[in-house]
Amino acid sequence: MNQFAAGTFVDTFGLKMTEMSPDRVAAEWVVTPNQHQPAGIVNGGVYCTVIETLASVAGSVWLGDRGTVVGVNNNTDFLRAVREGVLRGVATPIHRGRSQQLWVVVITDEQDRTVARGQVRLQNLAAQG
To answer: Which of 19, 28, 52, 84 is labelled catalytic?
Structure first.
């Protein structure tokens, strides 16, 4: 998956997958100043991107060759300001059905404190062919 993401939006800030299964996807990245908003903390859009990405990858792994997934809702809460360090995100399923999936993603810092949490609803699209 890391090779597949080369040159994409998430690659611009170094998101690296560390675990991938139908029941759990994890990734991490190093916070750098180019991820900051003007106040010097990680921009909320970075968290939204990571949450959407991990949920989508997880949903795709689970759905497999039955089709593809697209995000239809992303609800992200920002809980703790971060200026530097390594952050880790983990996606786990809440619901996986015939037409939709719901995943929760928790982002933690190096002290295992939750810094952001979100959930993403995915639409399952049947394989064409």
So the answer is: 52
